[in-house]
Amino acid sequence: MKIALSTQVCRDWDWADSLRVAAETGYDGIELMICEPHTTLEKLQPNIDEIKGLAGRLGIQIAVLTPPRTVAQLAADPDYWEAVLEVAAGLGAEVIKTAPAPPPSQSATDDDFRQAGLAARQCGCLAAEYGVKLTCETYLNMITNTIAGAARFLQEADSEDVYLTLDICNLYINGDDPLEAVEVLGGRTALLHVKDGKRLAGGDWTWHPLGLGEIDFATVFALLEKQSDCRWASIECLIDGEMYVHLESPDTTNPENIVRYDLRAARQLMDSKA
């Protein structure tokens, strides 16, 4: 499995700096988020060849493109969705990551699930024509925020062109077992989101550096490798200097130090049960 850097860590940088830092710190690719001030669809469209050329020179892949809309919103705006797909295909992205739709699964109605599944099926069909995999994340406060909700969503989508971004930590926060999540959902997972944390009393949680939370990512990586063809794990480095006080560098608020630490931790976890 290859490791990508989610550019949520560097939203204040432009795409060129994001590519440079990811490459220099040793990532295989990036998950490029379409968000201000980082970049916009309008900034990407005329610069596809330049971006892809720079990525090639740096030896890094733009693995994932993440638009700032839910799959329901994308289905309702086919022109925008097709523009996203054209950029993704032009950049050589393998995956587009979206959020599904609210509300949380615990309060979703049968119609909520049907509408979300229909939207995903429509978007996934067009994505397949462009050679890109559509994924919907197991997202906090949305219809896929639990194992049961994500499974029901896939059932309603009823399409080989709809995949999941499996965010283990989001499911864990909602009370699900990370290893059960891989067992149940791993076969339809095209992207793994990686971040770590701990549950707190009263249903709250706190983020932690990768490997220092409560999630057994070594086993997650090993199980997912066995039961899916998921090619990418995208690390959502969480910038909080206080969490990373154990880093060798004294400047723990520097994003480059933190993305370097999380990559090293991910590789160690992957190798521990290889």
Question: What can you tell me about this protein's structure?
Answer:
This protein is α/β, with parallel strands linked by helices and 274 residues long. The protein has one domain: Alpha-Beta Barrel (TIM Barrel). Helix content is 44%, strand content 18%. It has an 8-stranded parallel β-barrel with strand order 1-2-3-4-5-6-7-10, surrounded by 7 helices. Strands 8-9 form a two-stranded antiparallel sheet. Helix 7 links the parallel strand 5 and strand 6. The termini are close together. The mean pLDDT is 92.
Task: Give the helices and strands, then pairings.
Layout: E1 2-6, H1 15-25, E2 29-33, H2 41-44, H3 48-58, E3 61-66, H4 71-76, H5 78-91, E4 95-98, H6 110-129, E5 133-137, H7 147-157, E6 162-167, H8 168-173, H9 178-185, E7 189-194, E8 196-199, E9 205-208, H10 217-227, E10 232-235, H11 255-272
Parallel strand pairs: 1-2, 1-10, 2-3, 3-4, 4-5, 5-6, 6-7, 7-10
Antiparallel strand pairs: 8-9
